[in-house]
Task: inverse folding
């Protein structure tokens, strides 16, 4: 089946630094990718929708200048958490949709900000 | 907007049958999906109902009643490995067929 890969799977950084998370569709072209954030024992909350070659659409309450999303190709989307703070510590998950409409999820990236 | 409510936790023993309910409020409806997520892992797709009725996939079945804005996931012959969180989700038709909005999640604990 289709595979979506995220990297890194976990990252620890100091407060104030920026962290980039990559989401790749390995065997299909992802015209749309979605980024979710999940706090412990909570649901997945959609952060933004990115479309290849255009600006991401952010959900209400998500700071676009803090969570930079780039979807420059049909197989790669990146999420950069800028000036990370401890409250940004979370599990970030991407999903990718191809032309068939089915969604595939990445393995997730656990961010811990010290 | 969309909102989906689920019980926060369900407990059961191995071999039992458990039902996880989901009630939803949406401004448009394009089907109800169910996902399983183990701690620290990614959600994995279980089932999808676009029409009323029961869909069966092995030990798991999913039911939908659009008139009641209600669905459930039925897990039979429970195994320890079924201990996980289960989420219902709807597709946000207003902004994109593939955009999913997840329910509050139900944590299933299976004991020996």
Result:
């Amino acid at each position: 089946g289709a595979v979506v890969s995220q990297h890194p799977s976990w990252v620890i950084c100091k407060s104030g630094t920026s962290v980039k998370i990559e989401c790749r569709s390995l065997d299909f072209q992802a015209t749309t990718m979605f980024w979710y954030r999940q706090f412990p024992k909570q649901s997945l909350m959609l952060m933004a929708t990115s479309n290849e070659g255009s600006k991401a659409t952010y959900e209400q309450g998500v700071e676009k200048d803090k969570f930079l999303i780039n979807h420059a190709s049909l197989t790669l989307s990146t999420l950069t958490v800028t000036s990370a703070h401890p409250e940004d510590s979370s599990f970030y998950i991407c999903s990718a949709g191809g032309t068939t409409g089915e969604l595939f999820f990445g393995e997730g990236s656990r961010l811990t900000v010290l | 907007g969309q909102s989906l409510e689920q019980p926060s936790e369900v407990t059961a023993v191995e071999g039992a049958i458990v039902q996880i309910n989901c009630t939803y409020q949406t401004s448009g409806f394009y089907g109800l999906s169910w996902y399983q997520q183990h701690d620290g892992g990614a959600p994995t797709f279980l089932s999808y109902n676009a029409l009323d009725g029961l869909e069966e996939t092995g030990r798991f079945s999913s039911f939908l009643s659009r008139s009641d804005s209600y669905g459930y996931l039925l897990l039979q012959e429970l195994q320890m490995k079924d201990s996980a969180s289960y989420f219902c989700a709807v597709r946000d038709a207003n902004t994109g067929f593939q955009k999913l909005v997840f329910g509050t999640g139900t944590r299933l604990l299976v004991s020996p």
In short: Residues 80 and 110 of chain B are 5 Å apart (CA to CA). DSSP finds no helices and eleven strands in chain B. Chain B touches chain A through 19 residues (CB under 8 Å).
